[in-house]
Protein: Copper-binding protein MbnP-like domain-containing protein
Amino acid sequence: MKRITPFFLISLIAILSCSEDNDDKVSQANVAFNFSHNWDGTSVGNADFNIIKFTNTNGEQLSISKLRYLISNITFKKSTGEIFVISGYYLVDVTNNTNLSFAPNITIPLGAYSKVSFAFGFNNDDNYNGNYADLNSASWIVPEMLGGGYHFMQLEGKFIDNTTAEIGYAYHAIRAVDNSKTPQEFQDTFFEVNLGAITIANSTAFKIEMNIAEWFKNPNTWDLNVLNNTLMPNFNAQVMMFENGQNVFSLESVNQ
Structure:
């Protein structure tokens, strides 16, 4: 019986290692996320900002001067219960046309996923002041008197009020806080955006659409004459934003 020489054994191990590496590469995929925006089907970009050209469900004409929002914890869940989470956050800044597309520095195993989702805003475990230097410098912090943490969205512009005057609005979403009670009472207003079941067969790009008009119409018809500014300390307004946000995002396409 022939003995395996040390040289042959080393060569065999090297071949098997290469084979395993190739299998790992084949079984993993890169993912990317691309965010686009519309107003009831009409594409919106920062070139459309600072022009009163939109009309909400309540009949108010308005412009957009700022739109940026936070997403976090992109999650891939299998029917077996196995979960893969891309931790971290992304500040999508339509105003400056930055971070509309991003590819996390992580791969996802190929296969069928019963749900792909992300969080709008931060969950309570992540929503603490001082944690994120880049968000601090982006003026994204919520004051301590309102519970601290970070904004989920800043949507600003001007609208024509019921006296035909041009008035500014600031539709800022945060965790809802009731300052009329001691101690303060909070209600969670981050929410999960479910993109549905997806099969990852190759490197995959998700195109996600935000219909900005939905923030003003469903299920709460938004009256900018009443709710235009000082909305961060307005508990009921924050809950209404949370409710309207359930219909804002949709999955436009998946490219592999």
